[in-house]
Amino acid sequence: MPIKQLYHSVKLEKDKCVGCTTCLKRCPMECIRVRNGKASILYELCIDCGVCVQICPHHAKVAQTDSINSIFRFEHRIALPAPTLYGQFRNVPSVDNVMSALLRIGFNDVFEVARAADIVSATMRDLLKTTTVRPLISSACPAVVALIQIRFPELLPNVANVLSPKEVAAMLAKKEYSKAHGVPIEEIGAFFITPCPAKMASIHSGRSTYVDGAISIQDIYGLLSSNLKHEVPEFIRQKPHASWQGVNWANYGGECAALRRNNLLSVDGIHNVIHVLEEIENGRLDDLEFFEGSACTGGCVGGALVFENPFVARNSLRKLIERMQVGDAQAAAELELPPDEVLMMQPWGPRPSITLSDNISDAITMMDKIEGLTKTFKGLDCGSCGSPTCRSLAEDIVKGYATELDCVFKLKEKVEALARQMVDLTNLY
């Protein structure tokens, strides 16, 4: 049975690809192959983490997001700025300036995703008091959730059944706007300003209910920066604002910090996240209460679609947060929580992935062949064959996508054997 294709933000522009294998070696899911001098992506394994987008020296990997013009298909348009957006501008006086700039480029209203992060944090604090699941795993990073769905399905019961901040923001933003302006929710468009392709993919994968699109921070940065110095409308100043802890979600560890507990673990970088999930799967971290995994190094500030250098962005956020901490007690007191059942969703299920065969007997036979072939390779995982590892080459051979002679060492042995045969034939005459 063919695997149902999910939406993916990460795309390959083959005309720019030179087959250099840089992406092949860095992809955490081993979902890239290079054949006939061009890369290809096995989308059944892709989690849209954006690593290939960031490291491709020829810009052959791109992340597709919605254009700013796409918002005008709705008469009423709400911007959902990720907390990361605030760190893209150096010495910005306050979040009000960024929110005001969003209004000037075409949005009718703005709802801070950081405010929704406050709500998710409060919900998670309550959940940790009642659940017996250990460790509870954050569902905030869609790339990490996709990773678990594909590679660690046994850990899916540990993933918190809580909506991500962008979903909560869109839900509350539409309800508030509809009530204030007497507009049907169906006529309101909510657009997330995204730092990464994984969030774009999660929105268009069919699981998102309230978010209508995602616009890259890179694409919107220029428009916003030219509108930051205009006067901030009074209604923006009067809007409920996020706490500094909500804004701090842009950094890895921000979610854990907002939970106000001790036995928590934050890990950034998708390769590091994989190592820790392996530890959890093997039962070595059962005493841990909560695990926050961020696919991007440094958290969302290190996303593939940000404009500012992530270290500079972290520093800008630090200064902004320090200014926010002065009057933060009022912001937290004004926070209204929706009913818990609104935040809960259906449990996460495994994502269909690549199988060797639908027939168990055939699959076992193919697995034995893979094991045998793998032992005949040198185990250097050089990538010269066009597969990321020697084992993945063995899998590709068994599936009929490659041959043993794609291995440069096997090819060298074959050539040397043929040369010796030629010498032997020459000596006969």
Task: Offer a quick outline of the entry.
By secondary structure, the chain is of the alpha/beta class. The protein has helices spanning 22-26, 51-55, 95-104, 113-130, 142-151, 165-181, 197-204, 217-225, 234-238, 244-247, 254-259, 270-281, 310-324, 328-333, 340-343, 360-376, 390-399, 408-428, and strands at 10-12, 32-35, 38-41, 61-63, 76-81, 109-110, 136-137, 188-194, 213-216, 264-268, 290-294.
How many discrete structural domains?
2
Outline the low-pLDDT stretches. Answer: none
Find the count of extended strands (DSSP E, 2+ residues).
11
The run of helices and strands is EHEEHEEHEHEHHEHEHHHHEHEHHHHHH
Strand order of the largest sheet: 6-5-8-9
Specify the structural class. Answer: alpha/beta
Structural shape: elongated
* Helix fraction bin: 40-55%
Straight-line distance between termini: 58 Å
Please tell me how large the radius of gyration is. 25 Å
Strand count, sense and barrel status of the largest sheet are:
4 strands, parallel
Provide a count of the helices: 18
